[in-house]
Design goal:
This protein is of the alpha+beta class. It is built from two helices and four strands, in the order ββαββα.
């Protein structure tokens, strides 16, 4: 893991044979925490992606990715549509909660007068 901290960067790209990989940690982790996070991410990649041609694992403080050379990690536009839809649903739910909160807050202010 020493190679991750070279030049103060917690980022590494490498490959072996037909497989290439990327590992990255946020810079507020020390080397040990980065190593632990990446170990968990790689373990989850192995268990959840199995023999897939590519895989990505985002954890709170690190990221690991692998792919066969020539294979993009994007499996098609459906993944992008699903991600966009999830973001939109989250934003709409957040706005709805904010509106309800402001409505209740304004009623409390009115009843206090």
């Amino acid at each position: 893991m020493d190679y991750l901290s070279a030049a103060g960067q917690f980022f590494r790209v490498g490959g072996s044979g037909n497989v290439q990989g990327v590992a990255q940690c946020v810079q507020d982790l020390d080397l040990s925490e980065c190593q632990d996070c990446l170990s968990e991410a790689i373990g989850r990649l192995k268990s959840e992606c199995g023999s897939a041609a590519s895989g990505d694992m985002f954890l709170g403080k690190c990221y690991a990715r692998y792919s066969e050379r020539g294979v993009s990690s994007k499996s098609g536009s459906n993944d992008e549509i699903e991600k966009t839809l999830a973001i939109l649903i989250g934003l709409i739910a957040g706005v709805a909660v904010l509106i309800v909160f402001l409505s209740i807050f304004s009623k409390l202010l009115e009843s206090g007068k």
